[in-house]
Design a protein that fits this description.
This protein has 13 helices and 14 strands. By secondary structure, it is of the alpha/beta class. Helix 1 packs antiparallel against helix 8, helix 3 runs parallel beside helix 4 and helix 8 crosses helix 13. Bound molecules: pyridoxal-5'-phosphate. The site of pyridoxal-5'-phosphate has 15 residues, from helix 3.
Length: about 400
């Protein structure tokens, strides 16, 4: 099997599991307990906090552990909306955010917030000018993702951060796809809040963090005990936090090498699959996540494509029907201007550290084979082209 779905989740790294093991077995102390046995757990959590912070140029005390990236996104949006309701109720985001942002914004609209969903260009880029133009008197937060999970486009976060700072508006970025994969610096980029998640960088699913810049207050999402300096209640998930620390350390240490290796494989993969007639790259041609190749293949359906790819031994995903369980094509693909009938044939191939040299060729060959087979039986394919051409 070739796993090419690293944007959905990653394999747990053996080094990460090794570091977690003691805290899943004999080191079961509660970090809040006062005796020496539990103190080891406390120290392990604080050590992980430093490592998680180091990846983005933050201070350890600016990192708050959560249960996942979705919780971090919910916390910052709801926490800012309620804390700053006297100042305003307007939030600026984009129309290609992850559901953890989109659905939270829709919920907040029902609670009386006003949300601007900025459009993107054909490559999925949110322009800094559009952010600037959307800012009003009552704008309390700008939330723009660092890199898109479906099409891989990296956003001009530094420029948007500069605008937010100049205009005095708080700035959050959902960096779940970017954290540990591409360089990010919260100080240089003027980021006030940043969401990240462990399972996209080699931890088990179910651990995340929110970076909150020193001095900023937002309302709590999880109320209860005094953990995480009274800002996120719940006994700490010590083994997973330790795992996140180790995954962050590894990602930071190997980032430059991973980027250059993955970019080469990705570019070969893109070049090969685009040789298939009536295919198109989605997302930005160069400013994109190092391992992510996303395309649309005209004349075929995303689900059929994935099932057939899996029969060829390849795990991939699609932005269309099957990922959402609905028949609508992805909101991201529609936002970049693809018509419904083309957006249905989307394929996302996301390479990761475990992929071996040559995988990109095997994947491309499988895509070619499957596309030809499916087109031969497709009701919207005639001869050598789609019926709409
Ligand atoms: C995966 C992902 C999330 C959600 O993270 P979980 O830890 O799975 O809740 C949020 N945003 C983006 C961009 C993602 O890719």
């Amino acid at each position: 099997m070739i796993y090419a779905d690293n944007s959905a989740t990653t394999r747990v790294k053996p080094e990460v599991l090794d570091k977690m093991m003691p805290y899943l077995t004999e080191q079961y102390g509660n970090p809040s307990s006062l005796y020496a046995f539990a103190y080891d757990a406390k120290r392990a959590v604080e050590d992980a906090r430093e490592k998680v912070a180091a990846v983005i140029g933050a201070k350890a005390r600016e990192i708050f552990f959560t249960s996942c990236g979705s919780e971090s996104d919910n916390w910052v949006l709801k926490g800012v909306a309620s804390k700053y309701k006297d100042k305003g109720n307007h939030i600026i985001t984009s129309c290609i955010e992850h559901p953890a942002i989109m659905e939270t914004c829709k919920y907040l609209e029902k609670q009386g917030c006003r949300v601007t969903y900025l459009p993107v260009d054909e490559y999925g880029v949110i322009t800094p000018e559009s952010v600037s133009n959307a800012i009003c008197e009552d704008t309390i937060l700008i939330s723009i993702m660092a890199a898109n999970n479906e099409i891989g486009t990296i956003q001009p976060i530094r420029e948007i951060g500069a605008i937010a700072k100049e205009r005095g508006v708080l700035f959050h970025t959902d960096a779940v796809q970017a954290y540990g994969h591409i360089p990010l610096d919260v100080k240089e980029m003027n980021i006030d809040f940043l969401s990240l998640s462990g399972h996209k960088i080699g931890t088990p699913k179910g651990i995340g963090a929110l970076y909150i810049r020193t001095g900023l207050r937002i309302d709590n999402l999880i109320h209860g005990g005094g953990q995480e300096r009274h800002r996120r209640a719940g006994t700490e998930n010590v083994p997973y936090i330790v795992g996140l620390g180790e995954a962050a350390r590894l990602a930071n240490e190997n980032m430059a090498e991973n980027i250059s290796r993955l970019e080469k494989m990705r570019d070969t993969l893109i070049e090969r699959v685009l040789r298939i007639p009536y295919t198109k790259l989605t997302g930005h041609p160069t400013n994109r996540l190092p391992g992510l190749c996303s395309i649309v293949i005209e004349g075929i359906e995303g689900e059929a494509l994935l099932l057939n790819m899996f029969n060829e031994g390849i795990c991939a995903s699609s932005g269309s029907a099957c990922s959402s369980g609905s028949l609508d094509p992805s909101h991201v693909l529609l936002a970049i201007g693809l018509p419904h009938h083309i957006a249905h044939g989307s394929l996302r191939l996301s390479l990761g550290e475990d992929n071996e040299p040559g995988d990109e060729i095997k994947i491309a060959e499988a895509v070619e084979k499957v596309a030809a087979r499916l087109r031969a039986m497709s009701p919207v394919w005639e001869g050598n082209k789609p019926i709409w051409d």
